[in-house]
Amino acid sequence: MELVTGLAAMQARARELERNGKRIGLVPTMGYLHQGHLSLVHLLRPHCHQLWLSIFVNPAQFGPSEDLARYPRDLERDLDLCRAAGVDGVLVPRASEVYPADFATWVVPGPAADRYCGAMRPGHFRGVLSIVLRLFMWTRCRCAAFGAKDAQQLWLIRRMVKDFNLEVELMEGPTLREADGLAMSSRNVYLDVEERREALTLHQALEVGKAAVAAGLPLKEALCAMSKHLAVHPKLQLEYLHITDWESLDSLVGVGGDPAWAGSAGDMDEAGREMALLVAARVGRTRLIDNMRVVRGPLAQSPDPATSSTLQG
Predict the structure, then answer these.
(1) Residues with Cβ within 8 Å of residue 246, at least 6 apart in sequence
(2) What are phi and psi of 301, to 5 degrees?
(3) Are strands 251-256 and 236-245 parallel, antiparallel or unpaired?
(4) Residue 49 is a catalytic residue
(5) Active-site pick, 37, 124, 203, 242
(6) CA–centroid distance for 182 within its chain
(7) What is the C-alpha to C-alpha distance for residues 195 and 237, in angstroms, rounded to an integer?
(8) Quick one: CA dihedral 182, 243, 261, 165, positive or negative?
């Protein structure tokens, strides 16, 4: 397995592989790998000749009070996992090269980046899209894999690829979960035993909402059911909870994460439409996100009009 730290060296190696007719695939990560990351390696493997994985804790996507300094890191462990998974090469760029003192050019995402996580973490998606675009350029990859757990990030990367006409095929890996249902995340290591029990509430609430949306119940009723499930866990601090149209990422109904984006179902609340349930919350010092996608079932009338009343954020 190759290990490259210099950007010029990576570009030279990528050009050499291209000259030899090799299709390069990329799994971008911030390291501290888990089975969710490795599942993306296995997903991408049949679609490329050379499979590369990048490890870079990107400071541009962290806010001033976030966990950049304590984000978990273990490069040797990560490299061992990559070797075992059959990764051909790993790019571990130096921060001083990625962001030299005179760096000044960024990818500015559209308004969908200002909602949900973007409302809670200003500038986050500018940092995400800027590093992803540059990783595509440095590795000259023609396919790349991302996990479904970071739903808004996945949506925005797809939009960037479309808007810039990038010749990169995007592949989506499903959200991998622990046996208890908690979505795999490098940040799960922060949770103590009690906090982990609280964190399971996110997945449970999404299951409740998914069942309601699939059954065609009013979206406000589905949101209310999820909110009630979360409300019985006072140690969980909800940041936002939304039911969105997956095609546009518009909020159909929700609370938090910039309430200006919380709309009414309108013409988008129709059977057969794919929707995404998005949630973010803090458990202790740890910020967790989760989501589920669901196809809207045939619309049904709520048996209890009171449950469809306006929700308070």
Answers:
(1) 155, 274, 275, 276, 293
(2) -85, 135
(3) antiparallel
(4) no
(5) 37
(6) 15
(7) 12
(8) positive
Percent of the chain at pLDDT > 70 equals 93
pLDDT of 206 over the 90 cut: yes
- Overall average pLDDT of the 80-87 stretch: 98
Whole-model pTM: value is 0.92
Question: Closest by alpha carbon to 227, among 249, 208, 250, 210?
Answer: 208
What are the chain's domains? 2-173 (3.40.50.620), 191-308 (3.30.1300.10)
Q: Which two tokens stand for residue 263?
A: 């709309």
Q: Name the residue among 282, 280, 283, 279 with its Cα closest to residue 193.
A: 283
Instruction: Give residue 136's Cα distance to chain centre.
Output: 18
Q: What are phi and psi of 30, to 5 degrees?
A: -105, 15
Residue pair 24/141 in contact (Cβ under 8 Å)? The answer is: yes
Please check the confidence at residue 312 and state whether its pLDDT lies above 50: no
The dihedral built from the CA positions of residue 141, 147, 148 and 154, taken in this order, carries a sign that is negative
Which pair of structure tokens corresponds to residue 1? 């397995």
Mean pLDDT of 141-146: 98
Supply the pLDDT for residue 309.
41
Q: Is the dihedral of CA 254, 256, 258, 259 positive or negative?
A: positive
